[in-house]
Amino acid sequence: MAFKKHVPNLITLCNLACGLIALIWAFNMNYEYAFVWVCIGIFFDFWDGFFARILKAQSPLGLQLDSLADMVTSGVVPGLIMFQMLVGIADNQQEYNLSPENYYFGLFPYVGFIITLASCYRLAKFNVDTRQTDSFIGLPTPANALFITSLAAMTTKESTPLLIIDLLSNPYILVGISILSAFMLNAEIPLFSLKVKYFNWENNKTQIIFLVVSVLMLFFFQYLAIPLIILFYVLLSAIMNKFTAKTTS
């Protein structure tokens, strides 16, 4: 059936649509809604490749379309949110001696877009890197987008500890997070893929373990769990890499 070859691309376009909606909320500094729409977009991104495989509808067009959609949902949105957070500090706080009239800080918020630039480079590199067929080299853009947008969402919740609010209100901390984000996106660190290829334990045990722990973290810590989950993802990948190196040596 000719229609089935378009199903994965339609799912990818749903990801892009969610990214566009997230952008609108980010422009309005409604970080909680922006985070929700990024999550929905990443959900669609999770399944487009799976349906492309089971429907045998993989194509060069789908690969490029996936990266373009990810560029918006997982690249432009987190960069804009970081920019908006830095602008918000200038508008609302004087304790760091930085204001909209201050020339130094006039350029400061744009540092947030280093996340978008690094995401673009990472996505382009992914498309031509033959090492990343079954795993990732560097933090995937969806994981990074969840990390950044969850931090912004936490600032809107009354349940967030005051210490975290203070840290996320410090422009220098935010710039440091932006730089770290850009580094992790393109670092030569092998990370396991979160996408499901086959529904069985043997091929997906790492993903299943990660998913169970992540759900438990979300239940107990809510928004605060997202950065912890990303950290757990990196640490679990490092443990797997060390174990694989031992078994192959």
TrEMBL record:
Gene3D superfamilies: 1.20.120.1760. The chain crosses the membrane at residues 7-27, 33-55, 67-90, 102-124, 136-155, 167-187, 208-236. Belongs to the CDP-alcohol phosphatidyltransferase class-I family. The lineage of its organism: Bacteria, Pseudomonadati, Bacteroidota, Flavobacteriia, Flavobacteriales. Keywords: Membrane, Transferase, Transmembrane, Transmembrane helix. This is CDP-alcohol phosphatidyltransferase family protein. It comes from Flavobacterium arundinis. Pfam families: CDP-OH_P_transf.
